[in-house]
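Allow me, if you will, to draw on your knowledge of protein folds for a short while. I have a record of one protein: its chain in single-letter code and its fold written as discrete structure tokens. Could you please explain, in whatever detail you think fit, how the structure tokens follow from the sequence? The record follows directly beneath this note:
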Amino acid sequence: MACGVFVVAEVTLRAYWIAGGRWGYTACDRTGLVDPAGGCGAARVETLPFWAGWGAVGVGAALAVLVVCAVRFPGRYSAAGSWAAAVLLLVLAFPLHLLFEIPAALAGRPSDWRDLGARVVLATGGLLFIGLANSCAPRREAREAGYRPVPRWTRRWAYVAAALPVVGWAVPHGLWVLGVPFGIPQRQLDDIHRNLSTWTGVAITLVPPLAGLLVLGLTQRWGQQFPRWVPGLRGRQVPRLLAVVPAGVAALTLVTYGVLSTAVLVRQVLTGDTQWSDVREGWAVTATLLVFLCWGAALGVTTTGYAIATRPRPERATSTALSL
């Protein structure tokens, strides 16, 4: 039901845009205007991009068919389709962007709230389709209750994944907020202080490492069983996919961002748009790209270890073990 409401709402909004309305539409990634609060001149856009209009309607129609099939014909194929839809929506939402932009916006930085709102809605839709996939999947396996320790190598990679955003992100950004030109030229530091308020800088500095600490839950008891202080859920098993899917999507997003950003930098150097001297002078910014790549890889390995440790076991095997 919730997935159906999401799809209908999205298709209705896109149809409204196709008809000429522009409420909720943003053109900040297509125009040179600097007006994030007003959608960067969205009201003056006459021709709607394909994927914002008819393309999105087509995707919405496919999702609607998927929802109907999942309700009418639950099973392995419906679950696989729902998972594919969930991954697509989460990738389009690009959670990493929200991780940086929402704290900065709350701290007072001018932000495109239309874009942020759309991304939050897409992320919510992705979570709804995860629930749909879980509900229509065949019940052939049962997960053993209680805490199941993860492999030792998983813990090591979890510590790496938690330390990287602190050492590779929070430390240099904290120094820049304090006015220390660590690994960047003074002119770039002046630009940072000119364009960002102190509170925005603090938010951008602290939020990623704090969010990165959540990876430790993949190796702790509270990552498999809700803590006692959680009302209504205390002691219950944490749904396995509730941990695996968000962590997996975050790992994929971080690796993708690191690879694409590094590729763009290499292309700029090869074409002469960026000089090697600039790369050396701003080595801390370049190193940040590698931090994202390594952070995503460490998170991906940790998630794999969690998935292995918590994988469901066949009911027959579990019953036999209990009888013995």
Summary: The radius of gyration is 23 Å. The chain has two domains: 2-139, 152-318. Residues 316-324 have pLDDT under 50 and may be disordered. The longest strand covers residues 141-142.
